[in-house]
Design a protein that fits this description.
Radius of gyration: 23 Å
Distance between the termini: 44 Å
Number of helices: 13
Number of domains: 2
CATH class of the largest domain: Alpha Beta
Oligomer: single chain
Largest sheet: 6 strands, mixed
Length: about 450
């Protein structure tokens, strides 16, 4: 696949755009950097001449590139070969493996979230887990792409994972059988009281269209007028910026959806509701179907958690700022930057952080994330108390971009204070038949909601 084909693609926990490798605004090398380049070349010569074993040029060049990018932020990276293939499989939405969103955290492979219904989730892997060994071999300090490649494999084959879970004294040994990960980006279900639940698992191609079709299907199944809607974005690591805009546009008929700002002029852009420019790849008549056309006059709740990142935060932030929805759950991941693919020849590219994005009210979600209007912890999780101390967000990643408002730690920790309304234990909820407390609370809220309440614009 050519790099240009990745234009509308979605990398894990990031919105990916494509900008050309050569532009009129491309930065020129600062003349003062000459001595530093001399050091770099001298290091290369010394290694080639004196290292204990011969070293191939491509190994040294790739190491130099990775070193430069590693000094920037956790989301900038050099991609070629398997890494480009990894992006390709994310676009296609199916591959054989475990179904995990992972990042490298200070040398360790850390789980952002397992995909819903995946072998990883079925085996009990949870957000915040560290994968330390694969088939008994230590992978700490190894390359992330190598670890991901090893976890993939033919359907039906198994791999042994050693998991360190913060809050537990002993590591977990899990055998996970690989499956074909055919991600269902959108699923839906009609709950009692004519309340719909639309779950968006990741922002791949046509998510806006799929949510539109899910809403039509819910209306068909309902016994009367729909009385409420839950848009579930929990554990959604993000994806296509275009699809985040398309999804937001379904519920907004005017105003800003998101804007992005960077150093390069081409990285400054804004996207508004009901703007046909958002749908350049789509026929005009079809595009008009997606602009502020569903759930009008219906109370809307958006569920988020610490695994809701990037594109998920764009949607939640837009609907929150326009007061179109009540945001409920836990504070989101806090991934407020945009990565662009800068081609380096035909088979390699830089995935470089080039801009920050902002909600309609001008807030950057970098570090702080989207704060819910009502914080509802997942009390039905028996490990909640232990794992909540170690939940990973953008602000926990080494070298992350700092929010321009310089958020204080106290502000980031405020949402951890215990709400006296939520005191039931996981065991007590299980006795009541409640397996998903956050969703249960959202549904009960909508059943008590009238059309004049805050969940309605």
């Amino acid at each position: 696949m050519r790099i240009a084909d990745l234009l509308r693609s979605a990398a894990l926990v990031t919105a990916v755009a494509l900008i050309p490798a050569t532009t009129a605004g491309m930065a020129q090398v600062d003349g003062r950097a000459g001595p530093q380049f001399a050091k770099l070349f001298a290091t290369y010569q010394q290694i080639k001449a004196n290292y204990v074993e011969p070293v191939e040029d491509d190994v040294l060049i790739r190491g130099a590139i990775n070193g430069m990018l590693g000094a920037l932020d956790p989301h900038s990276a050099y991609v070629d070969g398997s890494a480009l293939q990894r992006l390709t499989t994310l676009i296609d939405g199916n591959y054989s493996g475990l179904g995990l969103s992972v990042v490298m955290d200070d040398g360790a492979v850390k789980v952002v979230s397992p995909f819903r219904g995946s072998p990883a989730e079925n085996a009990g892997i949870k957000a915040g887990d560290y994968i330390t060994h694969l088939d008994g071999e230590l992978i700490y300090g190894s390359d992330l792409d190598d670890a991901v490649a090893r976890m993939r494999g033919p359907e039906g084959t198994s791999i042994e994972l050693t998991i360190f879970r913060p809050g537990r004294d002993e590591p977990l040994e899990l055998s996970v059988t690989r499956g074909v990960i055919e991600l269902e980006p959108v699923t839906y279900e009609l709950e009692s009281g004519n309340i719909g639940v639309i779950t968006v698992n990741e922002f791949s191609t046509n998510v806006g269209r799929d949510v539109h079709q899910a809403w039509l299907a819910l209306q068909t199944e309902a016994t009367g007028r729909m009385s409420g809607l839950v848009l579930d974005l929990r554990s959604n690591p993000g994806g296509s910026l275009d699809e985040a805009i398309a999804l937001s546009d379904l519920f907004l008929d005017e105003g800003r959806i998101v804007s992005q700002r960077g150093r390069a002029r081409g990285e400054n852009a804004h996207y508004d509701a009901d703007d046909l420019n958002n749908y350049r790849q789509m026929p005009r008549r079809e595009a008009q179907r997606y602009m502020g056309s569903i759930a009008e006059g219906i109370p809307l709740i958006v569920l988020i958690d610490a695994g809701s990142a990037s594109a998920s935060e764009i949607v939640a932030g837009a609907l929150q700022d326009h007061r179109r929805a009540l945001i409920m759950g836990d504070r989101s991941f806090g991934k407020g930057s945009v990565q662009s693919l800068l081609p380096l020849g035909r088979d390699a590219a830089l995935k470089l952080t080039t801009a920050r994005y902002y909600t309609p009210a001008g807030h950057s979600v970098q570090e702080g994330g989207i704060k819910p209007d009502i914080t509802v912890l997942q009390l039905s999780d028996p490990d909640l108390a232990r794992r909540s101390k170690y939940v990973m967000r953008e602000s926990d990643l080494r070298g992350h971009l700092v929010n321009e408002l310089a958020l204080e730690d106290e502000a980031l920790e405020a949402d951890k204070q215990v709400d006296p309304r939520f005191q039931l234990t996981a065991a007590e909820l299980e006795e009541q038949g409640i397996e998903d407390f956050q969703l249960h609370y959202a549904l009960e809220t909508l059943r008590r909601t009238t059309r004049a309440t805050v969940a309605l614009r």
